[in-house]
Amino acid sequence: MDFLVLTEITCPHCGESFPLEVDTSQTDQSIIEDCTVCCRPINLAIRCRPGVIDSLAARS
Predict the structure, then answer these.
(1) In the chain, which residues have pLDDT < 70?
(2) Which end of the chain is more exposed for a tag (fewer CB within 10 A), N or C?
(3) How many CB atoms lie within 10 A of CB 45?
(4) Considering the entire predicted model, what is its pTM?
(5) How high is the pLDDT of residue 1?
(6) Domain that includes residue 23, residue range
């Protein structure tokens, strides 16, 4: 089973979307990822199960 899932996120700062690869081997995650467009940090709250992203919330 492939635990890495490619998804699109939208930056809460600039509104641009970009791809992000999520490791779904951990069920609840809280990570900080920099926007690939404006470089500002995005707080991501991710809920998933192996191979599936159940929810993803992006906050500034």
Answers:
(1) none
(2) N
(3) 13
(4) 0.87
(5) 73
(6) 4-59
Tell me the two tokens of residue 21: 């690869």
Length of the chain: 60
Cα 17 to Cα 14, 36, 38, distances in angstroms: 9, 9, 11
Total structural domains within the chain: 1
Instruction: Confirm if 21 and 43 have CB atoms less than 8 A apart.
Output: no
Separation between Cα atoms, residue 26 and residue 8, nearest integer Å: 19
pLDDT tens-digit map of 23-35: 999 999 999 999 9
Q: With contact defined as beta carbons under 8 Å apart, do 18 and 33 qualify?
A: no
Identity of the amino acid at 48: C
